[in-house]
Amino acid sequence: MEGAGISVGVIMGYRRGAKTQNTKQLLIRVINSNVKANNLVGGKVIARDSYGNMYVGRVIRAHARGRNNVVIAVFKRSLPGQMIGSEVLIYR
């Protein structure tokens, strides 16, 4: 599956500041060890909740210069807080 340009990630949480949080931007840790975070920029992210709703977003940049395989993704709709910890698919 990974050879076809599909990676799996886990939602870590919202992108935050000291006093703000942006619910449309999420931090996603890429599970695949052979894929670097910098190579996923521009990729499409698809998340599904338990009700079958689909959330579509895209990777805009690597977080912390990609050292921990974490990327920042922007979604069209805000994801609910219950989605934190769930898996997403990243298409390159």
Assign a percent range to the helix content: under 10%
What's the domain count? 1
Q: Which strand order do you get reading across the main beta sheet? A: 1-2-5-4-3-6
Annotated CATH homologous superfamily: translation elongation factor selb, chain A, domain 4
Kindly describe this structure.
With 92 residues, the protein is mainly β. The chain has strands at residues 6-16, 21-30, 44-48, 54-62, 70-75, 87-91. The chain has one domain: translation elongation factor selb, chain A, domain 4 (Thrombin, subunit H, Beta Barrel), CATH 2.40.10. It has no helices and six strands. The two termini are 12 Å apart.
Could you outline the blueprint of secondary structure elements for this entry?
Elements: E1 6-16, E2 21-30, E3 44-48, E4 54-62, E5 70-75, E6 87-91
Antiparallel strand pairs: 1-2, 1-6, 2-5, 3-4, 3-6, 4-5
How would you briefly describe this protein structure?
The chain is mainly β. It has a single domain, classed as Thrombin, subunit H (Beta Barrel).
Relevant terms:
92 residues; mainly beta; Thrombin, subunit H; 6 strands; 50% strand
